[in-house]
Write a structure and sequence with these properties.
Elements (H helix, E strand, L loop, with lengths): L7 H50 L1 E3 L3 E4 L3 H7 L2 H32 L6 H9 L6 H11 L6 H8 L14 H8 L13 H27 L3 H9 L4 H12 L1 H16 L3 H6 L11 H11 L3 H25 L8
Antiparallel strand pairs: 1-2
Length: 332
């Protein structure tokens, strides 16, 4: 019995399959060749430093690397009151800054989206603070907040009001309001310090232009026919905004919520320039504590562990936003 021979169509099919494989690997190789520069840069400046930082966090460090201690640095964070206090301040910073930035950004963008004269100049004016260095802007705002000779206190004096300590006030704003009404609040109701609120005001001013530009892009993607259909059904300006604009801006809101929260949890420049984390650590966020631990106290391993815990918290919060808020986003 003779072995079966391959027919011509079978050989042609095999040849075509081999040619497709060669073409696939050729195209894949070209694609990775184009990606190679970016992959090299990401590996050199992102992946390798992150992996090495985790390696550092597993050791005890003095001036040089000492003994291997495993996860002890992470365990110590659980009972570190400074870390939890700084985390609470970081949360306050997010809660104070992000909602205001989003609300004001949407309001201003909606107004600038209307057919106004010179709206291009207004858009530019609102975006200028965002392209200003946070260090330079922080220095200017620190001068505005000066207790003696600062512009804001001079305005208060002109209005017959007492001066405020602004960046030098560690007491909570709710406690200050209670004192003004001859009352007192427990410590857990004192609220964020006036120094932290003052830094948040500067941050809102600085980042507002970014929110305005993103909201303008989102408004531009809403079809005009949708508004025309709503008005034909009798919808007024407020109803069109509530039932058309807001739902169709949900992807924009979601994007700004995610990126704004991540950015606020990593805020550093303005806090370092304006308060340095003070007074009495009342504006010391987690990132400021990491800076103090890593660079000023040279506790390299412990500071690296804090950085990884902060990264894990940011990832967890981002996942929570995707799980809870992302489901309500409308892309149609």
């Amino acid at each position: 019995m003779t072995a079966p021979t391959m027919t011509i169509p079978g050989r042609a099919a095999l040849a075509m399959t081999a040619a497709r494989r060669r073409a696939y690997w050729r195209e894949t190789g070209v694609a990775y060749l184009y990606l190679a520069p970016a992959l090299v840069l990401l590996t050199a400046f992102n992946f390798f430093p992150a992996a090495f930082a985790f390696y550092i966090s597993l050791f005890k460090w003095g001036l040089v690397q000492e003994e291997f201690i495993g996860l002890q640095n992470y365990v110590r964070l659980v009972t570190n009151e400074e870390f939890w206090q700084s985390l609470g301040i970081s949360v306050w910073y997010v809660v104070l800054a992000i909602p205001v930035e989003m609300a004001l950004g949407l309001l201003i963008a909606y107004l600038l989206f209307q057919p106004l004269r010179g709206r291009g100049a207004y858009r530019t004016a609102y975006f200028l603070p965002y392209i200003t260095s946070t260090v330079a802007a922080g220095l200017v705002w620190r001068w505005l907040y000066k207790r003696e000779g600062g512009l804001l206190n001079e305005v208060l004096i002109a209005l017959g009001l007492p001066k405020l300590m602004w960046l030098d006030e560690p007491e909570g704003v709710f406690q200050l309001m209670a004192h003004a009404a001859d009352a007192n609040l427990p410590a857990w109701l004192a609220g964020p310090s006036l120094a932290l609120v003052s830094v948040c005001v500067m941050s809102i001013w600085h980042y507002l232009g970014f929110y305005v530009v993103i909201y303008l892009a989102g408004l531009g993607n809403i079809p005009r026919e949708t508004y025309e259909a709503a008005r034909m059904d009798g919808a007024g300006e407020w109803q069109a905004f509530r039932y058309v604009t807001l739902p169709l801006l949900s992807p924009t809101n979601f994007f700004l919520l995610i990126t704004g929260t991540i950015g606020a949890l990593q805020a550093f420049n303005q806090i370092y320039v304006m308060t340095g984390g003070g007074p009495l650590d009342s504006s010391r966020t987690v990132l400021m504590l990491i800076f103090k631990t890593f660079y000023q106290q040279t506790r390299v391993g412990y500071g690296s562990a804090m950085a990884f815990v902060l990264t894990a918290l940011i990832l967890l919060l981002t996942w929570a936003n995707f799980s809870l808020v992302g489901r309500r986003v409308t892309y149609d």
